[in-house]
Design goal:
The protein has about 400 residues and is of the alpha/beta class. The chain has three domains: about 60 residues, PUA domain (Archaeosine Trna-guanine Transglycosylase, Chain: A, domain 4, Roll), CATH 2.30.130.10; about 110 residues, RNA methyltransferase domain (HRMD) like (Transcription Regulator spoIIAA, 2-Layer Sandwich), CATH 3.30.750; about 190 residues, Vaccinia Virus protein VP39 (Rossmann fold). The protein contains ten helices and 20 strands. The strands form four sheets. Strands 16-15-14-17-18-20-19 form a seven-stranded mixed sheet, with helices on both faces. It has a six-stranded mixed sheet with strand order 2-6-5-4-1-3. Strand 5 and strand 6 form a beta hairpin. Helix 2 crosses helix 3 and helix 9 crosses helix 10.
Length: about 400
Amino acid sequence: MAKFTYPAIRLKKGRDAALLHGHPWVFSGAIDAVEGKPAAGDVVLAKNAAGKPVALGFFNPHTDIAFRFLTSHTETVISSDFWRRRLETACALRRKIINDRTNAYRLINAEGDGFPGLIVDVYNSILVLSVTTAGMEKQKKHIVDELAGRFQPQAIYEQSRGRSRSVEGLENHDSFLLGDAAANPVAVKENGLEFFVDFIGGQKTGFFLDQRLNREKIGTLSRDAHVLNCFAYTGAFSVYCANGKAKRVVSLDISKTACTAARDNLERNGYPAEAHPVVETDVFTYLRNSQENFDLIILDPPAFAKSKRDVAKASRGYKEINLQAFKRLVPGGILATFSCSNFIEEDLFWKIVLGAAQDAGVDLRVLARLEAGPDHPVALGHPEGRYLKGLLLAVS
């Protein structure tokens, strides 16, 4: 069989170091020359300055991230067999880490599973995928065929939208690739608790799967507690806290749709909203005006920083929300605080929270650093993949 030949990019001297150390991206400024005429999304061979093959990956000449790593085995053919092997590896990992009381989890986590620009979430018998790179867009049919054959799902829904796609030169795409709208919403179980997921109209792919272990951990701390769940969305943290024997859980969200879903999820699990109220409100306003104190507060806001330009403004927002939360905690209370903004690095987040504590006049002890669960693996050389960061804090 003849050897398959890909177009190539030649890197500037020393600019292959990041790839060799496990980082999956090469930026456009590191490329010295392009051999052939690869289009956006094509697979190319990356060579070092001396012409030695280094890796295969997706190429996009129109973006800052010009090369996305696929494999260091440079004689590999990127075919359906390649993706079948990658999918089997991802499935094998999930079989080890997802318990039999859970049927909602992340199956493919982009670079963390070797699929740059692809997310696939499992919701019971439904698969929801999101494609954000031109390379994965060209490989999508292979992926969908493999998913359909392996899982035989009731439906596969694509929810591919947002800034990342536009940067890659792609239009938004929301549609069923298999099945139809009768599948939405879908009932799922997470650690034996039940939730409805709107995978068409909901945030992200419908549910914040990355918080599964954090919900479980925080639920165990809620016995006999008065709990405030800020930015509650569809109330998953609230359900876990009610299940953990909290005396009262107050859930806040500005979205009427989210509040309705939160009430439904509480009642579905046997916790009536009369005992655990859901309040449609702006969280900042509520905290500034409230006179009620709580034993446990959860801050899980949406991403305040969508780009580097937003970091300063987002930092002020994170500081304000944490400052107000500290003021509403009883002495000895616990705060679980998160940022899911890629552009707010962990060290900066720690400094923001510490600054808020100092302004509030409270002392902190770190009980745990919180992050996404193991069904959201991250390549060791790719710190940008650790978008979710959190702190579990004892306040005195």
